[in-house]
Amino acid sequence: MQLLPLAFGGIGLMATGAKGAPQELVPGLGEALCRQNEKTYAGPPMPRISTPTFSGTGCPSGGKIGENYMGPWKCSRSYDVQLLIPDLNISAKPGSIAKGDCTITFSVDKLAPGWQLSLWDGVLDVEAEMALGTELRTKGSAKWERLAKGHQGGSRSRYNPTNGPVKDNKWGATINFGTDPTRPFSPCADANGELGNLTLTYSVEADARFASGPASMKAGSWTDKGSGVAVEIEDAATLNLKWLIREC
Question: Among candidates 99, 93, 83, 88, which has minimal Cα distance to 136?
Fold first, then answer.
């Protein structure tokens, strides 16, 4: 089994398997190779997710599937699954810290039998504010129900010591779920194309303990083009997920 380089938006991604794009890992793939990979991709379509549940202050009730792409891998797509999370509001006043946590579980099926999945880092798009000296942090983990062990990701942060305040109506907070091409993937899809449930957890923090201004991550409104088509997001945060795929 060999790693296959795939790319989107000029950023190198990897899918693995015996079929697909060129059999060589090349960091920093350009747009031309990205498009060529799309033309030569011979793997199966992306899977379906269904029946998501959301719990925790980092994903208040009302979450739902915004996008579930089930076609062949596409260079133009920066995500295969987008989850909408309304009412997110992690806000810290000066001298304080605000925290939120989230658990999302959904079932995954309609993958070609004999293939398996993992995830690239997730991206939580939010409306963000950072005063001088504040910090925004995320941390995640992932667990397939049919595997004994889950995967814990590392912490990611954005620190604003000197060049603020910063306000961004669409800031992408990277969440490391501890899943990448070097780690165990999902179980193999069975004869019905089913993989079982995947549970993702993440924590978010807005830290303004040593600042004279606020820090926050909130639901917002913007035009999202990550699917290749412009979509209006209204009063929600979005969790964007990109699959890694390989033959068992």
Answer: 99
The answer to whether 49 touches 144, Cβ cutoff 8 Å, is no
CA distance 222 to 128: 13
- For residue 89, the SS3 value is strand
The closest of 174, 172, 161 to 128, measured between CA atoms, is 172
CA gap 64, 205 in Å, rounded: 23
Specify the pLDDT at position 106: 97
* Alpha helical stretches, state H, 68-183: none
* Single pTM value for the model: 0.85
The structure tokens listed for 144 are: 């397939």
**Distance from first CA to last CA of the chain, Å, rounded?**
9
pLDDT band at 220 (very low <50, low <70, confident <90, very high): very high
Compute the distance between CA of residue 82 and CA of residue 203 in angstroms, rounded to an integer: 18
**39-43, 81-85, 178-182: which has the minimum mean pLDDT?**
178-182
d(C-alpha 143, C-alpha 152), whole Å:
9
- Other Cβ atoms closer than 10 A to 33: 19
164 neighbors 131 (Cβ within 8 angstroms): yes
| Pair 121, 178: CB distance under 8 Å | no
Q: Helix, strand or coil for residue 228?
A: coil
Alpha carbons 86 and 12: distance in angstroms, whole number = 30
Using CA of residue 13, residue 172, residue 78, residue 59, what is the dihedral sign?
Answer: positive
Residue carrying structure tokens 């950072």: 130
Q: How far apart are CA 66 and CA 124, in angstroms?
A: 13
Q: Which residues pair with 188 in a beta bridge?
A: none
